[in-house]
Every structure is written in structure tokens, then in C-alpha cells.
Design goal:
The protein is mainly α and 79 residues long. It has one domain. 48% of the residues lie in helices and 10% in strands. A two-stranded antiparallel sheet has the order 1-2. The radius of gyration is 24 Å and the shape is rod-shaped. The protein starts with 9 loop residues before the first strand and ends in a 10-residue tail after the last helix. The relative contact order is 0.20.
Length: 79
């Protein structure tokens, strides 16, 4: 079985991360901006998106899967 993040109730909010990334070195002051841009280039910067998980959707999906796979055991029969 294969599921997509939306089916699992997961969504990613990237708008804030994009704004945060664009704000690096864009304060309006030349020297601090250049230093911030260089520092970000040289040392890197952690900017993470917000990941949301709807547990109700995830639980409903798992309940559906469990109905399909939770079967009573059967005795083996020879052919």
C-alpha cells in the first residue's frame, strides 16, 4: 500500500519558511545585510517548514487498514 501525505492528514506550511529565507540579508542596512548574507552562505542557516498532522485523519486511515488486515486465523489445508 502506498499513501500520500494528504491522505495521512499531514500538510506542510512553507509560506513562513519562504518569508524567513527571503528576510535573510534584507533588513535595509547595507553592511549588516552583507554580513548576514555572507554568514548564511558560509555557515548555513536552518530554516524549517511547519509540519502539521491531523491525527483524526491518520487514525481513520489506520482504522481502515486494520479492518482489511485483521483477519481471523485459518487452519492450513493441503491441496
Amino acid at each position: 500500500m502506498e499513501f500520500y501525505s494528504g491522505q495521512l492528514g499531514m500538510s506542510v506550511k512553507v509560506d513562513h519558511a519562504i518569508e524567513e529565507a527571503f528576510a535573510v540579508g534584507h533588513s535595509g542596512s547595507l553592511l549588516p545585510d552583507v554580513l548576514e548574507q555572507w554568514g548564511s552562505f558560509y555557515y548555513g542557516r536552518n530554516i524549517a517548514p511547519i509540519i502539521m498532522l491531523d491525527m483524526m485523519m491518520t487514525e481513520e486511515l489506520l482504522k481502515g487498514i486494520s479492518r482489511d488486515i485483521n483477519l481471523l486465523p485459518r487452519d492450513a489445508h493441503s491441496l
